[in-house]
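Record filed here:
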Amino acid sequence: MELDERKIKILQAVVRNYLETGEPVGSRTISKYTDLNLSSATIRNEMADLEEMGYIIQPHTSAGRIPSDKGYRLYVDKMMEDKEKEVEDMKELLLEKEDKIDNLLKQVAKVLAVNTNYATMISAPQYNRNKLKFIQLSRVDENQLLAVIVTEGNVIKNHIIPTEQKLDDETLLKLNILLNTHLNGLSIEEINLAMISSLKKMAGVHSELVADVIDAVAEAIHSDEDLEIYTSGANNILKYPELADKDHAVELLHTFEEKEPLNELALTNLTGENTGIQVYIGDESPIESLKDCSVVTATYELDEGLKGTIGIVGPKRMDYDKVVGTLKNLMNQLDSLYKKG
């Protein structure tokens, strides 16, 4: 008997419904649950075939069906296959775009520095990844598990979790189903104490392992990696006498060379409430080494959720009209160039 696409969709509907309710699933429920537009009678026939093939079982004569271990296995394998394909497709797309974006932003930083006669910085775009898309637990050896955590933007984080418990394939399968069913699509704020407590209770003897996985998820979502920063025109600052004395010059050039404070500036801009053009004058600057300067920043967006920061640093007597106008024009051009490319 062939396990065709229609049977797979019905099986997936049975598994999803059973995971949500914990109750045996009938054909009438499945008729509302799939996009196949099949009658209850047709679904009953298909479910009878799935039962004969060992993918679902009928716990009581008059009850609906529940997934068997074989059914769970097919559901998870298919889910992981789909997720892995989605991630691979996105990886290829991002790698193709990344090279173009890298060269584009370097060039933009240079053009900005020449046009304004100030120092410029641009952070490489980062995905907003505050929601979980997928978790996959797999065994490394008897004492270690690998948790692959995929967040929004298909950012992938690998986390090794030590464990003293020996976990067989069936246990790993059920833990993967438990975690993905309840956590996928949630932000870290939505994974509250009540939910964690409920998951730990459902995990039974593996409650501590579930807690460790949730900690890894929180770390992946909140991870603030150093951004790639492109700079140009740092020496332009030395053209202005008020910034050209030895102490100022050394501090400012060090900021643009080391880039760590610029990373902080970019993150401040991306995570703040105001994501339009911001002007920081003197002490208003979030960066200590730039307190004697003016800093104008803007958030650019190349795609939904793919954002970065552009910054221009100069003396307090900078030409604000020119700088703000240049940034607005650049943001439009960057958006246009990216979508054409």
Q: What stands out?
A: The first helix runs from residue 5 to 21.
